[in-house]
Amino acid sequence: MNLNVNLRQLKAFLGVAETCNFTKAAQQQHLSQAALSASIRELETQLRCRLFERTTRSVELTAAGREFLPVAQQVVALLDSSAAQLQRMGQSGVSRLRLGFTPILASNVVPGLLEEFQRRAPMVQVDLVDAGPAELLEQVEADRLDAAFGAFFQKRSGLAQTQIAPATLMLVYSDQFSAIGDRIEWRQVFDYPLIALTDRSPIQQLVRDKARQEGAEIRSPMVVNQLDTAMGMVERGFGVAVFPSFAQAAWRRYAVRASEIYPAVSIDYFRIMKAGKEPGPAVEAITQLLMQQLHHPAPSERAPSA
């Protein structure tokens, strides 16, 4: 028997099986009742059996309909999944991934991360957005990004958070402040001039919280947007700066040192996606690589003194 069953017919069948009502199923699928009924008749003709018992009061699956139901569900789910993946493929066969990262991740972790990812998945093109948490949340919400990664303190309905890795805050300083040593208490951090990040930074928010807890005043000779700017100022002795522990890659590019701050303050990093949206294999691969790098950062090395 040669079948000519199509997706329209299967979805019509599943809609009626779920609602037990032709009118409701037609409304849900944005079809006229006549068009939906025609699809069911075509399917029954192809299968050479009745799928529904119809009366003036009810619509019920026949024995054949109950047997066919799980098959139809599986076929439609498989086709929908395949279609979603194919829609992300360009004519050249290159899949496009739209990702966002907060600035410190983008400057310290992402270059090596993408290098490894492109080696493993050369047919996936990555579009990268480097922005603050609030902007990334908006772009994910508007479906302009497939996923965003960073420290997100603000939660929004409709977005799903997946924890990637914790980090701790550390103090970065130059030889001018070499008396700081390998460990420093939070109350002592505020004795030094602090190169501060902008108020949009989750790290700066944590620093402000600690200052309030300690009853201290933040001495900020400068407020900057970029990690590299802060590192350059620290290297020249204008002040000290607070950064997450995974930023060790940046420290090695400058003549600076790092000190543990105690009590330790954790800053959690998350993957943000639209709720109900499946990450897909490419996003999962990026996530796993990022987790590996954040859990196992490159060994810390102290740069030579200037």
Account of the protein in words:
The chain is α/β, with parallel strands linked by helices. The protein folds into 3 domains: 7-87, Winged helix-like DNA-binding domain superfamily/Winged helix DNA-binding domain (Arc Repressor Mutant, subunit A); 95-164 and 268-295, D-Maltodextrin-Binding Protein, domain 2, CATH 3.40.190.10; 167-267, D-Maltodextrin-Binding Protein, domain 2 (3-Layer(aba) Sandwich). Helix content is 43%, strand content 22%. The chain is built from 12 helices and 12 strands. The protein has helices at 7-19, 22-28, 33-47, 63-87, 103-108, 110-120, 133-141, 186-189, 202-214, 227-235, 248-251, 280-295, and strands at residues 52-54, 59-61, 95-101, 124-130, 147-150, 159-173, 183-185, 195-197, 222-224, 241-244, 257-262, 266-274. Strands 3, 4, 5, 6, 7, 10, 11 and 12 form an 8-stranded mixed beta sheet that branches. It has a two-stranded antiparallel sheet with strand order 1-2. Helix 9 links the parallel strand 8 (195-197) and strand 9 (222-224).
